[in-house]
């Protein structure tokens, strides 16, 4: 029994050591560090499966990119430096939140602009309709309507 | 007449917008590398592990880097056109995330007139270059600046209309 316990302990030490000096895409042993990694990876787009982040994607490229992010973290680079490393190679497209600059103005402002335009158009149309169709009949119209209805009733 | 005008304008605007959308290819992500000096690397030669090849070997003349793998079906389709291109300009094959013996067998089968074959089994060079799928082809001028990145297989038409004209133009620039 003792030997089994020893074996388990040795295995555990090995496992911890492997994550501490981990290579590739193995998680960090330090939960805070792992959280920082997840935060960065969540904001990086997988180029192959465009809608997914490299954190969520199973694509081979996403795995390589995750490993690279971990490697850069181990080198002590800042979040900003890691993001810059990726944009220098894959362009702004790799970021789920692209930076605000003239080339991305349309991307950032078009939705709000479209929304405001839509509300404006809807208001104008609503106002025009209510002008064109008064809700209440004038007394003359009321009389005429009654007469028409009476005529119809007589015919039946 | 006036009542019809507005919906017509909106319809035409939408049709134009969606029409432009159809011509875009969202799978092709523009590379920030274009216009910049290509990132340097030193890797093993595919056929000879003892020999190393680095990017500085390529400087001084117009060159092409073709990223491929033996597991990539589109690479087989484009290979005849890559070989045709290699008749005009030095083409370097970058073997991406592959196994050496499979890659060599593929080359022996498909034909090999690459000036040199570079071996990148874990995609390290690929990551530096922003490779996200194979095949990809980079055209470098004599100064080693990336002038074009072609994503996807080279076809007879892209070779004739896009790649060869640019290669010849760059070769003419380098001579003058």
Question: What can be said about this structure in brief?
Answer:
Chain A has 156 residues and is mainly α.
Describe the protein's architecture and organization.
The complex is a heterodimer of chains A (156) and B (176). Chain A has 6 helices and no strands. Chain A is mainly α. Chain A has 2 domains: 2-99, Cytochrome C biogenesis protein (Helicase, Ruva Protein, domain 3); 103-155, no CATH class. The longest helix of chain A has 28 residues, at 105-132. The model of chain A is unreliable at 18-22 (pLDDT under 50). By secondary structure, chain B is of the alpha/beta class. Chain B has one domain (35-175): Glutaredoxin (3-Layer(aba) Sandwich). Helix content of chain B is 41%, strand content 20%. Chain B has helices at residues 2-23, 73-86, 100-110, 124-129, 156-175; strands at 42-45, 52-54, 63-68, 91-96, 116-120, 136-140, 146-151. Chain B has a 7-stranded mixed β-sheet. The mean pLDDT of chain B is 92. Chain A binds chain B through residues 47-48, 50, 60-61, 64-65, 68, 87-91, 93, and chain B through 26, 29-33, 97, 122-123, 126-130, 132-133.
């Amino acid at each position: 029994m003792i030997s089994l316990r020893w074996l388990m302990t040795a295995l555990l030490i090995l496992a911890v050591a492997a994550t501490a000096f981990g290579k590739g895409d193995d998680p960090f042993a330090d939960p805070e560090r792992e959280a920082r990694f997840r935060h960065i990876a969540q904001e990086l787009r997988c180029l192959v499966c465009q809608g997914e982040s490299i954190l969520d994607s199973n694509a081979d490229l996403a795995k390589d990119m995750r490993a690279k992010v971990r490697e850069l973290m181990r080198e002590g680079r800042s979040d900003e430096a890691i993001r810059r490393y990726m944009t220098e190679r894959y362009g702004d497209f790799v970021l789920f939140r692209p930076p605000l600059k003239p080339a991305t103005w349309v991307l950032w402002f078009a939705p709000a602009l479209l929304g405001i335009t839509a509300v404006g158009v809807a208001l104008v149309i609503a106002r025009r309709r209510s002008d064109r169709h008064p809700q209440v009949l004038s007394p003359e119209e009321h009389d005429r309507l009654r007469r028409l209805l009476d005529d119809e009733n007589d015919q039946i | 007449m006036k009542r019809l005008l507005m919906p017509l304008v909106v319809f035409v605007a939408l049709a134009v917008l969606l029409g432009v959308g159809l011509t875009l290819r969202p799978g092709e992500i523009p590379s920030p590398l274009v216009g910049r000096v290509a990132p340097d690397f030193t890797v093993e030669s595919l056929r000879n592990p003892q020999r190393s090849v680095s990017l500085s070997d390529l400087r001084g003349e117009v060159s092409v880097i073709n990223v491929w793998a033996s597991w990539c079906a589109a690479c087989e389709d484009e290979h005849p056109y890559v070989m045709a291109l290699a008749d005009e300009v030095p083409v370097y094959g970058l073997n991406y995330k592959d196994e050496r013996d499979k890659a060599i067998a593929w080359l022996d089968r498909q034909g090999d007139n690459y000036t040199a074959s570079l071996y990148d089994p874990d995609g390290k060079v690929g990551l530096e270059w922003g490779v996200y799928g194979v095949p990809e082809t980079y055209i470098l001028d004599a100064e080693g600046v990336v002038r074009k990145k072609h994503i996807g297989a080279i076809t007879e038409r892209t070779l004739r209309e896009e790649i060869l004209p640019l290669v010849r133009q760059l070769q003419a620039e380098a001579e003058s």
